[in-house]
Amino acid sequence: MKLLHEGKAKRVYIDDSSPDNVVIEFIDNVTAGDGAKHDVLEGKGKLACDLTAFFLKSLQKKGIETHLVKVLDDTRMRCKKVEILPVEVVCRNIAAGSFCRRYGIEKGTVLAEPLVEFFLKDDSLHDPLITSDAAVNLGLVTHSEIQFLRALTLSVNHYLSELFKQVNLVLVDFKLEFGKTTEGVILLADEISGDTIRVWDEKGESFDKDLYRDDEGDIRVAYSHLIELQQQMDIDAVPVREEVIHVIVQPKDGIKNPPGEVTRKALSRLGFTNLRDVRVGKVFEIHLSKPITSAVLDQLTLMNMKLLSNPVAEKHHVRLDL
Ligand code: UDP
Hints:
By secondary structure, the protein is α+β, with helices and mostly antiparallel strands. It has 8 helices and 17 strands. The strands form 4 sheets. Strands 8, 9, 10, 11, 12, 13 and 14 form a 7-stranded antiparallel beta sheet that branches.
């Protein structure tokens, strides 16, 4: 098999059996501090492969599309070939790591709600935090893609947090990467293992790469423990997270909007005089009983064309972040 790419902890090969797939091999490397610390830990690749396979399969069962096609052996999986998006997405439930350093927040502070952050995937710049506006402005992702990444990440957070809750562990934070297929479909890619998540028990003990970062133990013991606990994790018992999509339908510019005019006049009578124009549209709040996928978004386009909006007089856009 021909090597396509070698990362810090994985190798990606051409899959000779299909041009649409690649083979990803988890290797025994572990790095921290931007590669400043580096070790080879025999058996770690298998543990990361096992953990990733379990979490990706569990998420797939809930309708989240991932790149995983098939686990081939202890350290290799066949995955859909994707182009990895240049933004990494971090979701945090509890303050730890760079979040504490950046904002001076005490480690362990429970966040008011899950927080999604974007990081530019660029080793030479040390993967800096990037705002969603900058990521869109620089053409790294589109506005709708960034909303999609955020919504999917929150879904993943729900399912993983619930799985860990079943074994009395808390999902503190995690990092995701997404990839785009040649057809333009965005899939959850890369890995979900002790290398990319933080999980604590009730006493605040870590079962993740922090053990290695902080020289506090052998990650292989912690990862093996997580694998044992997976026997007790049951994704079927996790309730489906309801996803909400808003479709905003507005009158097109230049098209008369009598309800808007009536409203403007009524507001003027009440003393709100500086209103040049008021346009009245409508909002559809659509509740889904499965995660948002590219197929769901395609369906919405059809729904808009067929029912929700009148393409001659109205414009519409989909919001996943309201
Ligand atoms: N993370 C990762 N790869 C990275 C940076 C972070 O997998 O290159 C994971 C990390 O394991 C943690 C979460 O993303 O679960 C948040 O990491 P943080 O931003 O706190 O960075 P760190 O403190 O690890 O530098």
